Amino acid sequence: MKYAYATMIVLCLLASTSWSASNPLIRNCNLVGGEFTVVEIHLQNSKIRDQWALCKFDNAYVGAFDVMQFNTKEGNPVSFNEYSSEVTQCSGHVEVAQVIGTDKKFLVCQYEDSSFIDLITLSLGVNAPENFQLNKFLGL
Questions:
Q1: Could you give phi then psi for residue 13, rounded to 5 degrees?
Q2: Do residues 38 and 53 lie in contact, with contact meaning Cβ atoms separated by under 8 Å?
Q3: Which helix (H) or strand (E) holds 57?
Q4: Pairing of strands 116-118, 105-110
Q5: Is 75 helix (H, G, I), strand (E, B) or coil?
Q6: What angle in degrees, to the nearest 10, is found between the helix axes of 24-31 and 64-71?
């Protein structure tokens, strides 16, 4: 019985590893030194909850899809343009995000192209040492 549990655990680990390797959002986030994270968004003025994929660089959270677009040169997310242009206030919609499986909550700014960045990272700006890893990824 002990070996059956050990076998099940190994199979589950192998399945999750192969799934993450085949998921382009996870793969692109990990390739550029980020940490893939999923958050639940409580949409303002409604009871609707949604889940978003994020890529975390130190304490900076940005959209995992935005990272993939930027990394593969398939797009230039508004969130990255605003941040790189040293805009420190959100010109999009502010939403509350909660990291799945934790009590950690923070605010994110979502732009018209559905790209997003957390408000602390945006407000600290490109010169903040806390944003070093994100700046490195963006080539700033």
A1: -65, -45
A2: yes
A3: strand 49-57
A4: antiparallel
A5: coil
A6: 70
Which tens digit of pLDDT belongs to each residue from 48-80? Answer: 778 999 999 999 999 999 999 998 899 999 999
| Residue 64 to residue 97: CA distance in whole angstroms | 14
pTM: 0.80
Closest CA to 59 of 32, 43, 78, 37: 37
* Per-residue tokens: 64: 């995992």
**Do 10 and 20 touch, CB atoms closer than 8 A?**
no
Q: Specify the length of the chain in residues.
A: 140
pLDDT along the chain (140 residues), means of 10: 44 42 88 94 74 95 96 93 96 91 93 95 96 96
Q: How far apart are CA 106 and CA 96, in angstroms?
A: 6
DSSP string, 103-119: --EEEEEE-TTS-EEEH
